[in-house]
Each structure stands twice: as structure tokens, then as C-alpha cells.
């Protein structure tokens, strides 16, 4: 192991300062109270799309860079390589440019054109594979080939974030709820891409001894729910999830099933219907994973009302819908992929008309 020179330490110190300065320049994300017809149940949407790179993954990318820098894995001139379906790569490309480092994103060919354009705008290069299962080995191969560093978000997401506090997303949620009618949420609902967010929130509520429960909403084609249900980490699926940024064809190392209280499968067409419905509700477009989260939230809220329970539910607005103008917001694309959001959209319209909602029928 070569010794670290004074020059290397100076570069590292400056790199950490730049990443920390980015955090200091970024205000906390907003928590929106949604007006929904669930008596005694308050629903909140934490808007992660207002980060500098437009998604929840900005937090993860910052943590991964700090983790890799302080572990001595990234050096002056290192090429950063990541396996990603889009948003993490956008955020990592931002931080790589901040540090003056080359960046390569390994991703499936079906990744939205808008995300590809953002990665390239930040100076990154996109390297495509035919199937989501191929991204891991290809990213490692490219990193080895250029003597770079494979960030490997799917392994390190759960350990790079300080789940005890230090302004993580869980601590932020509870601080923002402090003056609300139900300051300790009954449920926090998230979806899983790496599993890092559910791990951070699940560990935090246990560490702080809150009664809050964590629900993970999983899209079609993802292995997380089956792995959690069977208590197995070796579950794989034949089909890659279609909702970008969440769901995986294998149970990722960063997914910590032991801190998850419940999981639910959300049909892709329901995610798209809910995504469009939320967009109309708040007056601006949101992404598909937000639709997945919201469909699960509505099911939980309806169950709470049915049982006579009161309380609050928090979920995440993961990214903006402008990244999906040519996919989930495009009726032709939706039809070509065999999806029919209409029946789910009718259930959402029924919720507004009658105040009743059934997640599955």
C-alpha cells in the first residue's frame, strides 16, 4: 500500500471541503401537506426534487463521494464509474465535475433520454448495456480498465449515510413535522432502488425509539418484495423493473429487510396513474417512483381510516416529471409497453368524488 503524500492529503482536504460546501449551500427540502379526503390522517410529501441535481439521489451521491474520499478510494484524477438507471448517475456526474474528475455511467439502454442528457451536460459519459443485470460487472470492468473507482451504490448506499442523524433525510422529516398535528408519523412510505433510504429511515426510527413504521413500495419486476417476504438475499427476477430508479432484478446488498415493517407490490400502470394524479394535485410534474410511493400511501391511509386510526403518513417526491416527458407522460410510450393506467386513474378520481379508495380490486 503506497504512502499518502502531503500533496494527496491536500487534494483530499480540498475535495471534502467542496462536497461539504455544496451541502451548506443547499437548503433543506420542502415538506408539502396534501389535502386528501382521509379524516384524521394527514399525508405529507417530502420534495427531494429541489436538490441541485433534481432528485433524492443528490443526498446519496454526496454521501458516497464523502465515503469514498475518506476511505482513500478516490484520488486526484480518478475516473468515477457507477452502475445506475439514471438519477444517481446524474448526481454523481455533478459531484465528479465539482471535483474535476472524469465520470462514466453504466446503464440500461432504455434509460430516459432526459437523464442521459443531464449526465452528459454535467460532463459525464454514458455506457450502455442491454439488461439491468449486466450493469454491475460492466461497471467494475470499466473501473479496472482505467484504474478508476467503481462507486457501487448498490453495496455502499446503506453504510455511506449516517443513519443516527447528521442531517439525514429521516432527521429532516421529523424536524419538519415538529409543529404538525401528528408530529410522529404513523408510517413513512418509500420505494427501494439501492435500499439505502429505507435502511436510513428504518434504523433512525429504531435508534430514536419512535413507533413509526416503514413501508416499502416495490414495482413490478423487482426482487425486493419476494426477498423480504422469503427472508432471502439471493432472489432474482427475469424482468427488469420499468419504473426508473426503483426496484431491482436482484436483492441489493444495501437493502436491509430487518428494518422494514411491511412491503406492497404496486402495478406499473398504477404508478403511472398516481404519478399523473399527483402532478395535477400539486401543479407540477413528478416522476414514476413518486407515483409508486403515493399509490402505496393511499392504500395505507384508507386502511387507517377504516380502522378508526388517526396520524400522519410521509412519503417522498423522488424527482421531477420533466425527466419522463417521453416515457411515462407519453401515452404512446405507455401503450407500446402494454400499460393501461385508466382503471387506476378511475380509482383515484373515485377517491376525490367519494372519499373512498381501494388499492387492489
- Calculate the mean pLDDT score and round it: 94
Distance between the termini: 60 Å
The Rg value, from CA coordinates, equals: 20 Å
Topology order in helix (H) and strand (E) letters: HEEHEHEHEHEHHEHEHEHHEHH
Strand order of the largest sheet: 1-2-10-7-8-9
- The computed structural class is alpha/beta
Total domains, how many? 2
Using DSSP, what is the number of strands? 10
Range of helix content = 40-55%
| Beta-strand content | 5-15%
CATH architecture of the largest domain: 3-Layer(aba) Sandwich
Q: What's the main sheet like?
A: 6 strands, mixed
Give me the number of helical elements. Answer: 13
Shape: globular
The CATH topology of the largest domain: Rossmann fold
Provide a brief overview of the structure.
The protein is an alpha/beta fold and 361 residues long. It has helices at 6-25, 57-70, 87-99, 113-121, 135-145, 153-160, 169-176, 196-207, 224-230, 268-282, 288-306, 331-336, 342-354; strands at 30-34, 41-47, 80-83, 103-108, 125-129, 149-150, 187-191, 213-219, 262-266, 311-317.
Amino acid at each position: 500500500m503506497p504512502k499518502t503524500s502531503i500533496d494527496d492529503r491536500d487534494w483530499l482536504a480540498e475535495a471534502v471541503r467542496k462536497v461539504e460546501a455544496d451541502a451548506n449551500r443547499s437548503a433543506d427540502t420542502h415538506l408539502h401537506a396534501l389535502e386528501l379526503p382521509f379524516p384524521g390522517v394527514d399525508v405529507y410529501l417530502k420534495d427531494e426534487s429541489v436538490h441541485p441535481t433534481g432528485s433524492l439521489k443528490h443526498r446519496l451521491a454526496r454521501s458516497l463521494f464523502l465515503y469514498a474520499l475518506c476511505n482513500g478510494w478516490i484520488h486526484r484524477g480518478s475516473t468515477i464509474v457507477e452502475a445506475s438507471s439514471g438519477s444517481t448517475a446524474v448526481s454523481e456526474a455533478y459531484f465528479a465535475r465539482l471535483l474535476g474528475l472524469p465520470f462514466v455511467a453504466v446503464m440500461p439502454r432504455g434509460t430516459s433520454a432526459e437523464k442521459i442528457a443531464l449526465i452528459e451536460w454535467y460532463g459525464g459519459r454514458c455506457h450502455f448495456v442491454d439488461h439491468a443485470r449486466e450493469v454491475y460487472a460492466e461497471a467494475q470492468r470499466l473501473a479496472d480498465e482505467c484504474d478508476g473507482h467503481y462507486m457501487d451504490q448498490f453495496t455502499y448506499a446503506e453504510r455511506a449515510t449516517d443513519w443516527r442523524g447528521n442531517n439525514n433525510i429521516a432527521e429532516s422529516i421529523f424536524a419538519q413535522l415538529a409543529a404538525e398535528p401528528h408530529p410522529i408519523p404513523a408510517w413513512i412510505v418509500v420505494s427501494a432502488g439501492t435500499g439505502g433510504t429505507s435502511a436510513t429511515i428504518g434504523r433512525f426510527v429504531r435508534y430514536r425509539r419512535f413507533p413509526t413504521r416503514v413501508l416499502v413500495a416495490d414495482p413490478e419486476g423487482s426482487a425486493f418484495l419476494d426477498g423480504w417476504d422469503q427472508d432471502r438475499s439471493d432472489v432474482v427476477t427475469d424482468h427488469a423493473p420499468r419504473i426508473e430508479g426503483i426496484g431491482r432484478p436482484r436483492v441489493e446488498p444495501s437493502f436491509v429487510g430487518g428494518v422494514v415493517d411491511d412491503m406492497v407490490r404496486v402495478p406499473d400502470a398504477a404508478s403511472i396513474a398516481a404519478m399523473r394524479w399527483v402532478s395535477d394535485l400539486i401543479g407540477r410534474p413528478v416522476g414514476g417512483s413518486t407515483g409508486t410511493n403515493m399509490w402505496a400511501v393511499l392504500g395505507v391511509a384508507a386502511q387507517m381510516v377504516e380502522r378508526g386510526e388517526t396520524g400522519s403518513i410521509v412519503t417522498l417526491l423522488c424527482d421531477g416529471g420533466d425527466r419522463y416527458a417521453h416515457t411515462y407522460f407519453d401515452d404512446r410510450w405507455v401503450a407500446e409497453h402494454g400499460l393501461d393506467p385508466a382503471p387506476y386513474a378511475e380509482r383515484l378520481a373515485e377517491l376525490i368524488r367519494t372519499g373512498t379508495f381501494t388499492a387492489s380490486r
